[in-house]
Structures are given as C-alpha cells and as structure tokens.
Automatic annotation (TrEMBL):
Species classification: Bacteria, Bacillati, Actinomycetota, Actinomycetes, Micromonosporales
Organism: Micromonospora vulcania
Region (Disordered): 158-179, 383-418
Protein name: DUF2786 domain-containing protein
One Pfam assignment: DUF7168
InterPro entries found in the cross-reference section: DUF2786 (IPR024498), DUF7168 (IPR055592)
Length: 418
C-alpha cells in the first residue's frame, strides 16, 4: 500500500487532470487510507502538512493572509476559506524565521489561530464544524490544496515572513491607529453611508475628503528636508463580482484623486493600489464608503426606472456604476486640486510643489518596478439611462466642488489591468 503522502499526491494529480472517474477513484483511495490502523489519520496529517507547505510558499511570492483568504472564499466558498485559515495558523506556529507585525495582525483579524492539540484531528474537527461527511471533507480539502498550489506570484508589497534586512516599505495605518483625523474621517463616512438624504451624504463625504487632503499635504510638508529610506507602499482592495470592472474603475478613480496608482488583477479579484501611507489610507477608506453609497444609490435608481424601459437590469447597473465612478473621480480630483492650491498659498509653491512632484515620481517608479507589463482596458458603456442616473447619483453622493457638468459623450478613461 502507498503511504499517505503518495495517496495525497495521486489525488491532486487526478483532480488537476480531466478524467473525472480517475479523480473519484483517487478520492476513494484517500477514504480507505494507507491500510494501517491509523491510516485515515495519516491521510489527514499528510493533507494538512502539504497545505501548510503550500501556504508557506506563497508568502515570498507576494501573497498576504488577507489576499489568500479572499481568493479562497471567492473561488471555493467560506468553508474552504476557513480551512485555509487553519493552515495559515499552523504555518505561523511552525514559522521559525522573523515574522513582521503586519502579518500577525492580519492573522488576528482573520481569527486564524491554532485551536487544536493534535494535527491528526484538524481535518476531522473542521469537517465536523462545517457539517461535512468524510467524503465531502476530503474532496473540499483536495480542491483547496489544488487552489493553493496553483496560485501565481504577485507583486511583493511588504517584506514577507522569513526575510531580514528588507527595505522599509510605507504602509497605511490599520484599524485603531490612534489618529484623531482618521477617527473623524471614519465617523463622517459612516454617517454618509447611513443617511437617506443626498445633501447630507454630500456634505459628510466632502468634509471627509477635505480632512484627508489636508492630512496628505501635511505629511508631504513634513517630509521636506528629511532623508527618506522607505518606498511607497501598497494595499489590495477586493473587486469581486458582480460588476468587478466597475469596482476596479472606482478604485482607480479614488486612487488617482489621492496621488496613488492602481492596477486591476481581474482573474484574482483585486486591485493593487500603490502610494504613500497617508494616501493609501484615504483610498481604502473612501473606496469602501463610496462603494456602499454607490450600491445603495443603484438600488434606489432601479426602483425609480420607468416601467418598460426595455433594458436588462445588469446592463443598466453596470453603466450606472461606471458613470458613478468617473463622476466621483472628477469631484475628488477637484477637491484635491483645491487643497493643493490652498496649501501652496500658505506654505509657498516653491516648497510644496517639488516635494509633491518627487513623491509622485516615486509612486510611478514603484508602479513600473512591480508591474512592468501593465496594459489598459477601455471602458464600455451600453446603457445611456444607467449612465445618466449614475452620474446624477455621484453628484449627490460626492463633493460639490466642481461646478462644470461632465461631457455628453461617453468618456474613454481606461482601467489599468495586469
């Protein structure tokens, strides 16, 4: 009889192939185990051990715990994502090399922790919690392992576990950062999301953007004359279906308005945003809030559509969200420009403008380094009514700083994609 590692390897090879019957036969062999008294437990340990190894290999390839969790949930569902969390916890337990603080913080946020006393009981405990019989548990575990071992390298945004002497990379503040400004911004955006009055949402979001822009400029002015050894950092924001392209466009528009660059990885379901820490905070907070506001406005717009308009809901929704994203971008950029002018008058353009240019060049250099093969994807709009409604909704939900109306022709702003 083959040992447990061989059984797992054969099952993985069969699942990756095209012969469904062979895959089921190999799954049956996993059910039987090695034939020894503890043969099924040995299979469980072998599955967990290989999954832990696969997870550990992803960290130097650019993946972070939140990225892996999001993708596992998207492709395989919440059950498999929880198994991946167990594997991440086991890998962290066995990680001997230095582990950066941000990595442990992500694991805590995911509640990825070792809850078991013996590795032989992990798969059984997980399947019991998920309400799966052994056949379905083995099938899910093998599918999860296939996914983990098939993931490609992505951009390394932070020094991964096991690295020493890595460059210091600027990162956004997370969670309770202790910043009064960020706390005020979060409170303003939460109110903007919850209100049913467009004028109030507009004022609240406008105030939030004003605070963000001032904070970004303060950070830039503080950097004048100081020697910096760090690099612009990055965050990944989910752009899951439905309307993934419209969400990616919203990320790009918010990023551009806050001195950041964004690249969309459609197949992996996220957009990577590169920028300086204060600006990354702005993008993350605004994108999350504006996505909530855009979705609520879209649902209200559906209810207000003329009966028998003749357009499919999905086409209308997509046009609505694309228009919303572009109009929001215009207004956010207008707010940023206004803040720049005010700061330049106060601090002097000869002091502020060179540092802003240098910071922008550093972000562009980081983009060129991490994404040398980036391409552009053109926007396609197929519903004029949805486009008009989305533009109007963005006027209500965003900033009342740009007095001009958008051009009547459909804009052709591209979205960057890997």
């Amino acid at each position: 009889m083959p040992d447990a590692d061989e059984l797992v390897a054969d099952a993985l090879a069969a699942v990756r192939g095209t012969d469904v019957r062979q895959a089921e036969r190999q799954l049956d062999r996993l059910m039987v185990g090695t034939g020894a008294a503890d043969g099924t437990a040995a299979v469980d340990v072998a599955l967990l051990r290989r999954l832990v190894r696969g997870v550990g290999r992803l960290w130097p390839r650019g993946w972070q715990p939140v990225d892996l969790d999001r993708l596992a949930a998207r492709r395989l569902g919440a059950r498999s994502a929880r198994l991946v969390r167990d594997a991440m916890a086991a890998q962290r337990r066995d990680q001997a090399a230095p582990v950066p603080a941000w990595f442990d913080e992500q694991l805590r946020d995911l509640t990825a922790e070792v809850w078991w006393d013996d590795d032989r009981g992990v798969l059984a405990g997980w399947s019991t919690r998920e309400g799966l019989d052994r056949v379905d548990a083995l099938r899910a575990a093998v599918d999860t392992l296939v996914l983990v071992e098939s993931l490609p390298p992505i951009a390394v945004l932070r020094p991964p576990p096991g690295t020493t002497g890595a460059e210091s990379v600027g990162q956004p503040a997370r969670g309770g950062s202790g910043s009064r400004m960020l706390d005020r911004v979060r409170a303003l955006l939460a109110k903007a999301e919850s209100t049913t009055f467009p004028a109030e949402a507009e004022a609240l979001t406008g105030k939030a953007q004003e605070l963000i822009a001032r904070h970004s400029l303060d950070e830039a002015l503080l950097s004048i004359g100081s020697e910096r050894t760090d690099l612009p950092g990055g965050v990944r924001l989910g752009t899951e279906p439905p309307y993934a392209g419209a969400k990616a466009l919203l990320v790009q528009e918010v990023a551009a308005a806050n001195r950041c660059e964004a690249v969309w990885s459609d197949d992996l379901g996220f957009a990577t945003v590169l920028g300086w820490p204060a600006d990354l905070v702005a993008v993350e907070l605004l994108y999350t809030s504006l996505l909530v506001q855009a979705t609520a406005a879209m649902l209200r717009g559906r209810a207000e559509r003329r009966p028998g308009s003749g357009r499919r809901t999905r086409v209308w929704d997509e046009s609505f969200l694309n228009a919303f994203a572009l109009r929001i971008g215009e207004r956010l950029r207008a707010a940023t420009d206004a803040a720049d002018r005010e700061a330049a008058e106060t601090a002097g353009p000869e002091r502020l403008l060179p540092v802003l240019a240098a910071r922008g060049a550093a972000v562009q250099e980081r983009l060129d380094t991490l994404f040398p093969g980036v391409t552009r994807h053109r926007l396609s709009v197929r519903d004029a009514e949805g486009w008009s409604s989305g533009t109007s909704a963005a006027d209500r939900a965003s900033l009342d700083v740009g007095r001009g109306r958008p051009p009547k022709q459909v804009p052709g702003r591209p979205t960057r994609a890997e």
